[in-house]
Amino acid sequence: MTDSNAALVAHLFRRAGFGLRRIDRNRFPVDDYAALVELLVAPPTAKRDDQSSLVIDAGGNSLPVLDAALRDAQTSWVRAMVTTRAPLVERMVLFFANHFATAYMTSNHVDATALVHQQATIRKHVLRNFADLTHAMIDDLALACFLNNDRNR
After folding, report:
1. Residue 151 pLDDT more than 50?
2. How far is CA 141 from CA 11, 110, 134, 147, 151, in A?
3. Residue 105's beta-bridge partner residues?
4. Separation between Cα atoms, residue 18 and residue 65, nearest integer Å
5. Alpha carbons 78 and 76: distance in angstroms, whole number
6. What's the pLDDT tens digit per position in 94-121?
7. Cβ atoms 40, 87 nearer than 8 A
8. From CA 151, how far away is CA 145, in angstroms rounded?
């Protein structure tokens, strides 16, 4: 890989993912820039195997005490972002999770399971038609609960 190509690939992974790791150089065709862009935009369907129970190491950070299921879901998602074979998908899931803002609020019945399902809904539509994503989010339980849809008249 030439120096200019390496700089382009590194820039692409910073913008369309979460950076280029050494292992990504073996996973992706970094010598063929056009093929790499195509792979990021139209990734193969990947199985997600990150739903296992995870041990959390707080690392001395002062974070609020969270429900164990939420911590597991957050850790699982961060692990997916770092290890995914579809970094653009996970980057866009993060973007739209912020766009369709939902917060973990047990008082509104927005729990970790609802948030994980919301991520799955976003992931299903994220690189497709925005109108389909928007309609799917209208039916999303976490977003409806967060917006107090059960109390709207």
Report:
1. yes
2. 36, 8, 13, 10, 14
3. 110
4. 27
5. 6
6. 999 999 988 777 666 678 888 888 999 9
7. yes
8. 9
Contact 142, 115 (CB under 8 A): yes
Amino acid letter, 100: F
For 31-70, how does the pLDDT look when each residue is reduced to its tens digit (9 = 90+)? 888 888 988 898 876 554 443 333 333 333 333 445 778 8
Residue with the two structure tokens 């690189």: 127
- pLDDT above 70 coverage of the chain, percent: 80
- DSSP-assigned beta bridge partners for residue 110: 105
C-alpha distances (whole Å) from 6 to each of 18, 29, 30, 31, 122 are: 16, 12, 8, 8, 31
Residue 46 confidence (pLDDT): 53
What type of residue is 34?
A: A
pLDDT tens per residue across span 118-142: 999 999 999 999 999 999 999 998 8
| Residues in the chain, total | 153
Q: d(Cα 51, Cα 53) in Å, to the nearest integer?
A: 7
DSSP code, position 149: G
Closest CA to 88 of 124, 127, 45: 127
3-state secondary structure of 125: helix
In which residue are the tokens 């925005």 written?
Answer: 130
User: Dihedral of the CA atoms 14, 4, 32, 43 (nearest 10)?
Assistant: 10
